[in-house]
Amino acid sequence: MIKILIVEDEKPIADLIDWNLSAMGYQCEKVYDGLAGADLIEENCYDLVLLDIMLPGADGYELLQQLRPTGTPVIFITAKGSVEDRVQGLRAGADDYLVKPFEIVELVARVESVLRRAGKAQERYAVGDVVVDPKAMLVTKNGRPVTLTHKEYELLLLFLRNPNIALFRDTIYQRVWETDLETDSRTVDLHVQRLRRKLGWSDRLKAIYKVGYRLEVEK
Ligand code: CA
Question: Which residues surround ligand 1, an ion (CB under 5 A)?
């Protein structure tokens, strides 16, 4: 199981990150100050550390210095959004940089991308009788392979990476089709309908009026 440490002194933000990443099957630990973070880093091994910069006790840069020799990937999560701060963060060796306030879908994309680069990507997703193995690009339902088009597969991964989160139709379009949504486009709706049919997910892929869709997954 992939272990993620969250060091963030704003409890609501730490809890939100913890809740969402735990729902995706990551094993999360969180602490609200830098010294507690330093102790955990000393004693444990993590696959990824999410670091706030301005922290009581020891700041994010100090914790990053402590983490460097271990090679653990680090994403800075901070309100310091100026160009100089970003450059300083990346120069100090952070793998990525996320500025508050951020959307959960953005956080999830960055976490997955940093883990992929570190060769630690989540190996498989299981929702009910549907199992997805991203390395093999294989989707099965009740053990039988399901044939998806490339876009249907990308859409499925987006939902799996953001379980129980309402995804805006234009966000879905940007992520899967990598361009902005044309007005009145039915593309997203048509692809969701096909996924529902192929996976038997008419109850799981909920339409949210005037927003988009949400994949409902039991905790
Ligand atoms: Ca802070």
Answer: 9, 52, 54
